Amino acid sequence: MIVGIDLGTTNSLVAVWRDEAPQLVPNVLGSVLTPSVVGLDDQGQVLVGQAARERLQTHPQLTAALFKRHMGSAQEIALGKRKFRPEELSALVLRSLKEDVERAFGEPVEEAVISVPAYFSDAQRKATRIAGELAGLKVEKLVNEPTAAALAYGVHQKDKETSFLVFDLGGGTFDVSILELFEGVMEVRASAGDNFLGGEDFDTALIQHFVSSQRQDKHFPDVNVPGMRNRLRCEAERVRHALGQQPTATFSLAQGGRQWELAISQDDLQHVSASLLERLRGPVERALRDARIRVADLNEVLLVGGTTRMPLIRKLATTLFGRFPAMHINPDEVVALGAAVQAALKQRAAALEEVVLTDVCPYTLGIETVEQFGRVLESGHYLPIIERNCVVPVSRVKTIQTLHDNQTHVLVKVFQGESRLVKDNIALGELSIPVPARPAGEVELDVRFTYDNNGILEAEVKVPASGEMHHLVIENNPGVLAPQEVRQRLAALAQLKVHPRDQMVNTTLVARLERLYQEHLGEVREMLGNMAGSFQQALASQDVECIAQMRESIAHRLDELERSPWQ
Ligand code: AMP
Question: What are the coiled-coil residue ranges (predicted)?
């Protein structure tokens, strides 16, 4: 059997073709969304999905998320004492999805069509195929995520030439793609985006609004402790989702017998998100410009990604494109459904051909810099020089200055990645540049990065004051595993013990109780502790019925707690 898989940054989904339609397959917890999170439990067994996600906060050293961002790089991610490549962690997610389908249909799954972002480079695509191989899946075909969305909407069944735009706003990223279907071939004409723009940013804006409304209250709790930040984030997301169904929602926070509340209307949300809504325009305009197409010439606009459920976003898209975008398929599910359509077409040897757009620089490349906050200088910041997704070859220059009086050298450290701080990015190399001793800020250095079609980065630093020029060439393709290494990794993965599937529901509940225990204080914490204790006792009794009953009742109370705090 061939399945279609959306291997997402936050969540992954699997779908099959049944009764002439694509159909999503739920996981062991009954959900079609499996968080793309992998961890090790206390016995060193692999946990995938919701249970691992619950443990992200309580066991950060044993849990990994967002590894899709590192696909195609040699970055290793530590889980306890073991290090994993991003394709190995992806393989564990894929293996879990494969098993869900095998359990549901009682048939082996041998092959998968996996979706990837349109801007994925050759190395990132290869890493995705290897992840499939490590999961025991043949991956002959990858499908671009926007193409998959188009397939789910049946765009490929139109017989005339079609141009359309896919507006994909997820939890943390925004991607715009313009595609053209011509004589049965789908071509990505342009792709643009923002790696730091998604639903979470709207949550941050709501949190800031709530916190600043309570500023006068001296009893208001410290919002910088980790548990509190998570609670505010969950509450902001709940409010944001609720505003899709009703005109107002209440943001509330309870602690130590006190309660803080703020009513939020659609207009308030619009107001606090104004700058984010504005930022959505840039990539849309860039993609249209790059594809040399006018809005009026687009045949369709498709909305993809959970955040496009927000009425604000739909309104913005309607205004931007002068028409109602297509959104009748659930935006979280559309890519997986489309991947299953591609899988079915492949089975009939009729798969849609794609022209793949890989001539982009897949990562942001930059250098370490120092930022000034008031009078404080803080090192370790990232100064992007070539932004992710630029069409290659590309050359960009940024000018930096000396920091101290009479300094004689400047160390230029080169990094790859998307994080604000260099410690979270990948170090590629460094150059020590001699400079003439002058007062701070008087000597300038022009740092030029050139990235060519072969993925080679050349860093060139010019010091106009001395007329000197320095070079560093970085061959940036350690991201693809050689066949020999794939075999080794496959053998290593086979040794890993996986957390027993039939205990997954209970493990997820225990992990959720632990997380909530950490997040709360006082009576609520005590109550959570009691629940955890009783549930452990029930588990020890091995009485299946008693366990199931208690699980239901605890899950129900936790749902209530997360929906509206008790105190
Ligand atoms: P994705 O990355 O496509 O899975 O999207 C995840 C994002 O979609 C998260 O930020 C969610 O808060 C957001 N999302 C999911 N459902 C809704 C909803 N009903 N209303 C608003 N945002 C939603």
Answer: none
